[in-house]
Amino acid sequence: MCGGSAVATALLIGARDIGQPIVGPVTAGRLAALGITRISLLGDQAGFGVVLEGWAFDPAHIDEAVRTVFPDHRNDVRVFGEIEQIAVSRAALEGSR
């Protein structure tokens, strides 16, 4: 987590051939226990992306999150960890005129 005060974010990417991510009620409960408060599912023809976010989420526990979402294929999932968060707003643009 960057800066210690931002919400932690991770992206899990799995190819279509490993199957869909599991995101039912049991999975949601397990992820919530890890401090994850938001799950977003993304996808295209090549595969699935699962975005995990949470103020109390410690990225050191990402392996457990991967096992929860892709239990049979955790070694086939790519994990992107957050490098930096940058806030943007129109007010900043308007203030620079």
Structure, explained:
This protein has three helices and four strands, in the order βαββαβα. It starts with 7 loop residues before the first strand and ends with a helix. The model has no long low-confidence stretch (mean pLDDT 90). It is α+β, with helices and mostly antiparallel strands and 97 residues long. A four-stranded antiparallel β-sheet has the order 2-3-1-4, with helices on one face.
TL;DR?
The chain contains three helices and four strands; from the N terminus they run βαββαβα.
Number of strands: 4
CATH topology: Alpha-Beta Plaits
Shape: globular
The CATH architecture comes to 2-Layer Sandwich
CATH class: Alpha Beta
How many domains? The number is: 1
Rg over C-alpha atoms, rounded to the nearest angstrom: 15 Å
SS class = alpha+beta
What percentage of amino acids are in beta strands?
25-35%
Query: What is the overall number of helices?
Result: 3
Low-confidence stretches: none
H and E order: EHEEHEH
The helicity comes to 10-25%
Major sheet strand order: 2-3-1-4
Mean pLDDT: 90
The main pleated sheet reads as: 4 strands, antiparallel
Q: In angstroms, what separates the terminal alpha carbons?
A: 33 Å
